[in-house]
Write a structure and sequence with these properties.
The chain has helices at 10-31, 35-64, 90-97, and strands spanning 71-74, 77-82, 85-86, 102-106, 114-119, 130-134, 146-150. The protein has 154 residues and is an alpha+beta fold. A 4-stranded antiparallel beta sheet has the order 4-5-6-7, covered by helices on one side. A 3-stranded antiparallel beta sheet has the order 1-2-3.
Amino acid sequence: MRNANQGFTLIELIMVIVILGILAAFALPRFADFGQSARIASLQGLEGSLKSSAAIAHSVHLVNGTAVNAQIPLEGLNITMRNGYPRANASGIDLAANVSGFAASGGGGGANATRTYNITGYTAGAGGCNVTYQAANPNQNRPSPVITRNDGGC
């Protein structure tokens, strides 16, 4: 009678472990840092939110026929406007877009006001990691707000 052993030899097991180690060495660096992608995605989301909120507020302004620098009602909130678009401040675009998770700085009620949004708790690199909202100013060839995403330092 012939003795038929079943199972793997030690050499086969070692080869499988070596192959898995090589695969892990190449795959791990690709999946190690999701932080940068997450930061860029959050900036893209904020950029889209600011653009759509400004457009919706402008539409409400046009439909209601309010003055260009008056307040408009938007979902039960009073949004302060400048040149028919939300102002670059807390009672303007911040309120219209319901911004959270970002540290807002700058801005104001003027036509040249620029509000900058940085990711809370993150220090950006040289290229910046923020979104800016520059208020509309028809006198300087900006009939609508200029919204810019800077993600080079994320």
